[in-house]
Amino acid sequence: MIRLAIAGKPNCGKSTFFTASTLAPAEIANYPFTTIDANHGVAYVRISCPCQELGIEDCKACTDGVRFIQIGLIDVAGLVPDAHKGRGLGNKFLDNLREADAILHIIDASGGTDEEGNPVGTGTHDPIEDIGFVETEMKMWVVGLLEKNWQKIQRSSQQRSFSIEDAVAEQLAGLAVTYEDVVDAQRKAGVDLRKCTPDELTVFCGELISSSKPFLVVGNKIDLAPPEIIERLKSEEISFASAASELALRKAADGKFIEYIPGDPNFSINNPEKLTDAQKSGLEAIRKILQNFSGAGVQESINRAVFELLDQIVVFPVEDENKYCDGQGRVLPDAFLMKRGSTPHDLAFQVHTDIGEGFLYAVDARTKMRIKENHELKDGDIIKIVSTKK
Ligand SMILES: Nc1nc2c(ncn2[C@@H]2O[C@H](COP(=O)(O)OP(=O)(O)O)[C@@H](O)[C@H]2O)c(=O)[nH]1
Ligand SMILES: [Mg+2]
Fold first, then answer.
1. Shared domain check, 121 and 74
2. What is the C-alpha to C-alpha distance for residues 39 and 281, in angstroms, rounded to an integer?
3. pTM for this one?
4. Is 16 in the pocket of ligand 1 (CB under 6 A)?
5. For ligand 1, is residue 304 a contact (CB within 6 Å)?
């Protein structure tokens, strides 16, 4: 399962984002270090179900063509500047980040938390200054991991039989860094690890981090953010969100007060007469935010991380390519996230190891044509696998 980590300074809204995305309990409070242990939860990416386009009416897997696929979400406790030197809760949290495939770096777009994560007046701190921060902390953490044995490694690299790339990959195995990643980062950084200076080693670690842990910056608290800050943030490649609005909407939807599907740009109120004036005006204020930003941004941020940063596609395995269903007649029963470039053979293994091992061929359910095992799957493909095993 794909896993995203939510990282950032204390009080930027990580736990609110996590709770909104998972509706699992997490501490929400306005002081640093509320979250002592990383919270692991299940969140969802939103996709459209092909049943609509195929004119299938009895699809149980979606609601009006909208469906959700599970991913893992980790609420990492607040990082402060110099965490890599052990400040704040220190390296413990950097350890949590390594479990993730990609990182949602939450910043407080309202400028209401200082560089340490302490609450200050809205607009007091410039959130643009926070953008590179998590990446820098992770880079310096990797530098720290390598520095421990660096002299020894560089000395050994004078021997012909010694591969410094292997030694670095081994040192960073906990981060799932491979020999190829090291070679790649070395080339991109334009350094030779055998004789690099400490500064060059830092540049190399930066390259390694940005390719192995892609980031999406999420400007949160847009409901409070001064328009001037939003305008400036728009020139950065970031996503915008109001985690507090998303949380309020999901709770209201849970209580049947409103109809709202996460990621929708609007919602409808079920029984206005059952709401107090304060509740109604609260919901109308949220509606304005959804209109200004085409949604509350939480769902969009998760989707962008999965589809843009991690380059995933969605594939629907079926057993009956004519009725688009499984053996029990369930229409489009599964939706799998797969890395772009995956093949029907990879899909077979994702369904079940046995099916992968017995793979014979696959059928594209839309065209009813046979496709080869090394054919590249496309986003939205509906595939029947034919295997010697069931
Ligand atoms: N107005 C507003 N407040 C938010 C938003 N997200 C979080 N907060 C508030 O910011 C404070 C810190 O949030 P929390 O999720 O605990 O931050 P964390 O320390 O990063 O986990 C809490 O008072 C939240 O209610 C948001 O989108 N808008
Ligand atoms: Mg928290």
1. yes
2. 33
3. 0.92
4. yes
5. no
